[in-house]
Write a structure and sequence with these properties.
It is a single chain. 86% of the residues lie in helices and 0% in strands. It contains 3 helices and no strands. Helix 2 packs across helix 3. The longest helix is centred in the middle third of the chain and has 26 residues. It is extended and about 45 Å long.
Length: 76
């Protein structure tokens, strides 16, 4: 077993020892971190955008992702 597989297994085992609440907290933290990264990307691309414009662009980006996923799930 390679080093990456060993690390992956250690992580899986650690998650299994956690409560559902702990795993949810980690997942929500990762979600919030990904939103912050996306916001920064939008701010870099549109430096003059207001906070409201950044949030609208973020929502549009999320909607586009759902639309791509839905289209892929419909294709044979």
């Amino acid at each position: 077993m390679g080093a990456v597989q060993n690390i992956d297994q250690l992580q899986v085992n650690a998650y299994r020892r956690m409560t559902g609440e702990d795993r949810l907290r980690i997942g929500l933290g990762l979600y919030e971190a990904s939103l912050a990264i996306a916001r920064e990307g939008i701010r870099n691309r549109f430096p003059d955008a207001s906070d409201a414009e950044v949030e609208e662009k973020l929502r549009a980006r999320i909607r586009a992702g759902y639309e791509v996923e839905a289209a892929e799930s419909r294709s044979p």
